[in-house]
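User: I'm putting together a teaching handout on how sequence relates to shape, and I'd like one worked example. Could you take 2,4-dihydroxyhept-2-ene-1,7-dioic acid aldolase from Azospirillum palustre, show the sequence you're using, and then write out its predicted structure as tokens right after it?

Assistant: Happy to. First the sequence, then the structure tokens directly below it.
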Amino acid sequence: MAVSTARIATPNGRRYMTQLCKHWAHKFEVVYDETQGLVPFAADRRCRMAADDAGLTLTIEIEDAGQMERMQEVVIDHLKRFAFREDLGEVAWTPVG
């Protein structure tokens, strides 16, 4: 499984995480609380989120590493839609492992 993570510095991390989870809960079996969320996009791909007072950490886990960049784009595109009032800057993804 390929894993990639990104940290977004924002005081609104919890709010954005909740919005993303609620948004995707219409299509997927999303699980979340005030500090973490899990979006199982499919059996072979998911996004974990962790939020705190300083920001939001996104972690994508995917079987097909060739699809990682596309999943990163999808997640960030949705995040930026909810964070349109704030400049989140360039999001840097880091491979894990």
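A couple of points you could highlight for students: Helices lie at 13-24, 68-82. The first strand starts at residue 2 and ends at 9.
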